[in-house]
Amino acid sequence: MVEVKPVLGGATAWGGYGGGMTTRPQNAPAAPAPHIEFDGRPATEEDLRIPALHGFGHFTALQVRGGAARGLGAHLDRLDAANRELFGRPLGGDRVRELIRHALAGAGRADASVRVNAYLPPGAAETVLMVAVREPAALPAAARSLMSVPYARPAPHIKRPGEFGQTYYGMLAGRAGFDEALLTLPSGAVTEGATTNVGFWDGASVVWPDAPALTGTTMTLLDRGLDRAGRPSVRRPVTLEGPDGVGRFRAAFVCNSQGIAPVQRIDATPFTVDEELMRELRAAYGAAPADAV
After folding, report:
1. Could you tell me whether strands 144-149 and 180-184 are parallel, antiparallel, or unpaired per DSSP bridges?
2. What's the CA gap between 278 and 263, in Å, rounded?
3. Which end of the chain is more exposed for a tag (fewer CB within 10 A), N or C?
């Protein structure tokens, strides 16, 4: 594990829209402002007080192309399950889709990054939904480097806003010259990337770390596609060192709603980019149908 030391100055981390996070160069142009709606109407100052003052909630982030999204059902299921657990009430998929369509129309976009946040502020009779629409995004195709950090998210099965730990360690990883932080348990067990799922290739199967982590929608679609191709994935313990260490694998990759990218190193452990594996993964993902929102 790389020693984590706070560093002053340098690049700062920014919330990569659609669930990813990268280190944004200081001289990079500002991203266009997102179009934000609350329950189907343009956001007001009063609306924006909800995420500012009552941040407890959950969200999902998806990529829309031509008004459709791969894994839409998984996104809707995620929102409904989290809403039931956090707020004790269901969240209907039809309502979510209607609000996404309305926000896309308001933004004038058919291709977009879309984020749906759910809140239940004090006194609210039903879940308040914030839909933000921004320019489409994709993971860089270049192989990525991951810096292991001693952090694990509480209740990792829920995707929620305001993740200070992920952003903090992602910032430190960027300052240290890495693309992303790799979250690990005190035992050294690998769990997930700060904003991605991480997978490994042992030469026969895709291996997901058997550890508490968010089950990403792209991860779910990859599992389905690999199953159809007769190459089912497996879950096994993965650690930084030892017999289950990352160094025993032939290749690694990360994935989230923005796509799939190879990993070239974890800390000081190098990985060869397996182009055949990446083709198989992208084919498995690409075979998933895109559902109209």
Report:
1. parallel
2. 11
3. N
